[in-house]
Structure formats: C-alpha cells, structure tokens
C-alpha cells in the first residue's frame, strides 16, 4: 500500500508539472460544458432544465477523454520511451503502477466533476435532485471501467501514435453521441444505433438517473450490468496485454 501511495504522488506530480496538460484536462471541458449550458440555459429536456441534463453528459465526456486520450497514450508513450522498462527493473509491481495511474485518473476526473457541477449549479441554476451516494457510486464504477479500457487500449496498441489515434477515434464519437450534449431520442436513427453500441451511453444514463432521480442499480440494472461487463472484459484484456517494453 505504501508503494501505491508513493506512486500516486509521483503520477500527480508529473501531471501537475505540465501546466498545458492541466489546463486542457481541467478547464477546457469546463469551458465546453459552460458554453453549451449558456446557449441552452432556458432550454428543457423533458421535465428538467438543459443545464441539469448536461451535468451527467459533461462528466461522461471527461471520463472518456481521460481514459482514451490521456491515460492510454501516456502509458504507451512511457513504454516507447523505455520508462516502463526501467520501472520494471525495480521492485515496483505492475499492479502498483497500473493502480496508481487509475487512482490518478480518478483524482483528476473528480476535480473536473466538482468544477463542472459547481459551475452549472451556481451559474446556470442546474439542480441535483437525486442521490449523491448513487451518483458517486456510478462515477466510481465508470472511472474504473473506462480507465481499465484505456489501459487495455495501450496494451493492444503497437506504439503511442497508434494509441493516440485509436483513443481519439473511440473517444470523440462517444463524447458527442452518447446522450452527453443532446438527448439520444432527438438523433437520427443511425446515430441512435451507434450511440446504443457505445458503453459511455450507459454510464451517462445511470449517472444522470442517479443525479436527477436517485435511481440505483435496481432502477438502472441494464446500465450497471453493461458497465460491469465492460469492466470485466477490459480487465482481462489489460492483464493479458500489459507489458513493460
């Protein structure tokens, strides 16, 4: 456990050292969500305001981006640069390194979530009328699921360039199609079918349900089953494909 905590501190230090990465990771998603909230501040989606609807979608966008655009690329690049090989020659175990990267991604995502929720609540009068407990539970499962998928993608990728291109190809459609910025019901049939094939849709649906209605696994069983299934499959792939060099 001491090694894990120490590695998390190292990962966070490396993250905070690059101010450009910090800005685009923490504030660019916030600006994007604030922009759409402002444009549709008087809008309604069903019985809720658009800013309230957008909160879960914005969180889903940062979770997908952190996993596929940041985590997978960074891990593959460290492998390309020989950093993982050098770490592999130390007492550091693979699970400690991977766990530290997942916890670091979770910390960054939590910071993004807090900023996003605070901005929407205070600037655009968004409301959280559901369960904070189930919201945090869904967020935890979502972070674990997508972070593990990002690690699996890094393992499957030949190098960092492939991981970066693949991560963008996976992440961008998710960020715009998966009930994030606009309701799936308002999309053309083809886009609806694509959205239902992407796992972020089910994370956003479960998170929005928890935040707005307080629904847990019983009310959103399909979403939870799909998320946990994706986590299990991604974990197996990540374990099988992880390599130090």
Quick rundown:
The chain has 245 residues and is mainly α. It has helices spanning 2-17, 19-39, 50-80, 83-88, 94-124, 132-156, 160-177, 189-196, 200-212, 221-241, and strands at 44-45, 48-49.
Which features does this protein show?
245 residues; two-stranded antiparallel sheet; 2% strand; globular
Please describe what this structure looks like:
The structure is a single chain. This protein is mostly helical. The chain has one domain. A two-stranded antiparallel ribbon has the order 1-2. α3 runs parallel beside α6. The longest helix has 31 residues. The model has no long low-confidence stretch (mean pLDDT 85).
SSE layout and pairing:
Elements: H1 2-17, H2 19-39, E1 44-45, E2 48-49, H3 50-80, H4 83-88, H5 94-124, H6 132-156, H7 160-177, H8 189-196, H9 200-212, H10 221-241
Antiparallel strand pairs: 1-2
Helix pairs in contact: 1-5, 2-3, 2-5, 3-5, 3-6, 3-7, 3-9, 5-6, 6-7, 6-9, 6-10, 9-10
């Amino acid at each position: 456990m001491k090694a894990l905590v120490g590695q998390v501190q190292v990962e966070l230090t490396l993250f905070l050292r690059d101010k450009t990465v910090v800005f685009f990771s923490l504030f660019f998603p916030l600006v994007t969500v604030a922009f759409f909230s402002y444009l549709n501040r008087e809008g309604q989606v069903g019985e809720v305001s658009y800013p309230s609807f957008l909160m879960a979608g914005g969180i889903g966008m940062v979770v997908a981006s952190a996993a596929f655009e940041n985590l997978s690329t960074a891990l593959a690049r460290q492998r390309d640069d020989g950093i993982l090989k050098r770490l592999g020659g130390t007492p550091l175990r693979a699970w400690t390194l991977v766990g530290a990267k997942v916890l670091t991604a979770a910390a960054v995502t939590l910071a993004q979530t807090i900023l996003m929720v605070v901005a929407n609540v205070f600037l655009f009068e968004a409301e959280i009328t559901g369960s904070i407990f189930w919201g945090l539970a869904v967020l935890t499962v979502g972070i674990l699921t997508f972070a593990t998928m990002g690690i699996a993608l890094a393992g499957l990728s030949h190098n960092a360039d492939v991981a970066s291109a693949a991560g963008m190809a996976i992440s961008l459609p998710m960020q715009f199609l998966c009930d994030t910025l606009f309701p799936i019901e308002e999309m053309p049939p083809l886009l609806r079918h694509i959205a239902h094939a992407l796992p972020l849709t089910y994370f956003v649906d479960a998170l929005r349900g928890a935040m707005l209605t307080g629904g847990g696994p019983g009310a959103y069983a399909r979403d939870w089953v799909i998320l946990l299934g994706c986590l299990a499959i991604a974990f197996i792939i990540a374990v099988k494909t992880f390599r130090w060099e």
